[in-house]
User: Which sequence fits this backbone?
């Protein structure tokens, strides 16, 4: 079994996801870990602009990357980028590659929940309604325009390697909800160990581990 | 340009190296970063045993991985595992893949230096003389048998995901030298931010960035 990661969107988020995949695999020695193939192409055109106004087109690069991982024999492919999930149905159909869907994993985790849940992500992810359409039962709370600007700034800071700056912006971006979904893969790097957040990359990592026949360690996200 | 990483030996060391490659690339946005392909196969048979007594043979798996990265179009391939560098001359010749040599990069950095330098690595790396033969001008100081057991324990702890345990063993493994080379890629994870160590993966990352036409940020290892 080979776990594929279609990454680079952004690169630090991909490295963090790979580290998480390793940390969440129950293992005593190298040979207990998953075989992993990563195609990380940070030159994929901007996903947010593609969703918001169609001024960019990341799809050909995503399809090319999926094909490379499929040809390497990936048994399952994860995309540690929420906004790119907008393209997932088309990508899965066109490539025939076996994807695991981070938004679907998160929806499954949230099943049965009602009440307010914060949604912190790019303007593309929010405008596409990725989470709102998948989990209509909860009351999604998105940031104010000022708060969204802090989310945007946190994501941009992480992308240029400024984790401390990202954390400062993230701290000012909170919404009024008992739990917030970190719906952008740069945000876990900025959020640190806050207990009030649900990090879908945790769920994505565990799904990949299970599908590859491995055993996730018992680290539960907040309920 | 595509940077290839032949990794998984171990997996946490590969994730750390990938994160380092990103952190050391001067970039303002995703698209400034390197395109990276990683083949991480933790099931490669034990490298240390192969060097010490030939009871394992990692070579076929290493050659297969190098071929995959070459076929993906890697312009340069890094191996974030010192012990595996024992096989590098044969691997480069057989695969025709364009490797960057971490031991050679470290030798270049140490050029002109004399006096004691600590060598902390696996028993395989030390027995193979990877550093001693490449840099004969310095006085290599290897740990006592008790110290080497601490190095072995630090490496094993990191491989099973116990970074804190690795750090505790590493702290007891020091040798009497003003600078020590972390000649095993698990050790930077256990060593933290100690100022008295030279981490060859820093030099490997910068070499990869330069060969891909990127610009390393100005983070110098200790002189």
Assistant:
């Amino acid at each position: 079994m080979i776990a594929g990661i279609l990454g680079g969107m952004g690169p630090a988020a991909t490295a963090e996801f790979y580290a998480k995949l390793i940390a969440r695999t129950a293992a005593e020695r190298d040979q207990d870990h998953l075989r992993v193939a990563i195609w990380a192409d940070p030159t994929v055109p901007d996903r947010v602009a593609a969703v918001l106004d169609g001024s960019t087109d990341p799809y050909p690069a995503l399809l090319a990357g999926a094909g490379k991982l499929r040809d390497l024999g990936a048994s399952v492919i994860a995309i540690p980028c929420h906004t790119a999930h907008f393209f997932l149905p088309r990508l899965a159909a066109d490539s025939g590659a076996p994807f695991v869907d981070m938004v679907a994993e998160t929806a499954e985790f949230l099943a049965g929940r009602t009440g307010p849940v914060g949604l912190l992500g790019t303007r593309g992810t929010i405008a596409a309604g990725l989470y709102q359409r998948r989990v209509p039962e909860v009351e999604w709370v998105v940031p104010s325009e000022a708060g969204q600007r802090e989310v945007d700034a946190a994501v941009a800071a992480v992308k240029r390697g400024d984790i401390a700056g990202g954390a400062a912006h993230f701290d000012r971006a909170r919404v009024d909800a008992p739990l917030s979904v970190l719906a952008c893969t740069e945000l876990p790097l900025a959020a640190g160990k806050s207990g009030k957040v649900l990090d879908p990359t945790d769920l994505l990592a565990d799904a990949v581990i299970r599908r590859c026949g491995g055993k996730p360690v018992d680290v539960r996200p907040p309920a």
